[in-house]
Request: fold
Amino acid sequence: MNLILISMGVLGVTGLVAAVLLYIVSLIFKVEEDPRIDLVAAVLPGANCGGCGFAGCRNFAEACVKAGGIEGLACPVGGDPTMEEVKKILTPSAAAEETAPVASGDKKGFDPVIAEKIKALATPKAAFPNLIAMAQKL
Ligand code: SF4
Reply:
């Protein structure tokens, strides 16, 4: 009986130490990602066809955010309407920067329509954890 209790104790302590170590390592190597990537990815068709020259929609979204605009980038599947949505996300209007923080508490200066989309997407079931964190700041 004693041997069973000792074994359980050793395994429990080992598991606890491993969990703490994993938590600390996850904090050290945490990668901060621009939350706009999730926004752009959300408006893309999601076909992951590679027609834009990137491996998939997520890679295309990362490229758009990295470029800070849509110059030279295009999604042939979504076409111009999709690229207009991407452009709106990447270039918050000056008017939105002036009014949105007061009107909606949007600290990032996004267009109010985009801010509403962020809030709508950020449900507990949303597949974009960064989006949830961003919506909580709105
Ligand atoms: S072309 Fe459009 S739908 Fe296809 S992978 Fe690129 S962004 Fe996604």
